[in-house]
Structure formats: C-alpha cells, structure tokens
Predict the 3D structure of the following.
Amino acid sequence: MLDQGSNSELPPIPAKRYFAIGEVSELCGVKPHVLRYWEQEFPNLKPVKRRGNRRYYQRHDVLMIRQIRSLLYEQGFTITGARQRLEGPQARMETSMSGQIVRQVRMELEEVLQLLKR
C-alpha cells in the first residue's frame, strides 16, 4: 500500500472506464474501508453499484478521491472542512481554472511533440 505522501507519488490513472474498489485503493493510496467511509461523508462521491452491491468507480471519482486525500492528509483539513471546500463556490472556480490549466499544458505538450518530431 502507498504511504500518505503527496499526490505526485501516486501512480497514473489508467485509461479505463470503471475501477474496482481495490484498484482505486491502490491508485489513491487509501484503504478500501476509508473509501467506503468517504462515500458516506462526501455526497459528491457516488460510485456506480452493480451486482452484489459491488462498487465501480469512474475516472472522475478517482480524481475526486485524490482531491479529498490531498485536502485531508496533506493540507490538514477536517472532513467537514474538506466537504465545504469541495461543495463551495471556490471549488467550482478551482475546477474551471483546472480545466484551463489542463488545456494550456496540453497545448505546450503538443508543441514539444512537434519539436521532437523534427
């Protein structure tokens, strides 16, 4: 199991549609029982449940779990504080800013790729 270090130490998220709880546990560095607990505490975290009540997380769930992990383990938020941070207007602004940053990084990476192809 991974330690509770920074998100940069976490493995990349594979290109899959659904992840089992064990996979998410390894991708996010938290134990499965912690993921089940966070489902109760964070209303935005709702994995799909299928046969036998098995949980299947999607990519956006994994990203949210990593964000929750960062807020709790790295930034020192309480569960209540992390919940408020994720639900508040600040969270929406950060999400839109994150999208802008991702677009910018993608453009820069495409430019680097073009330079490498020469």
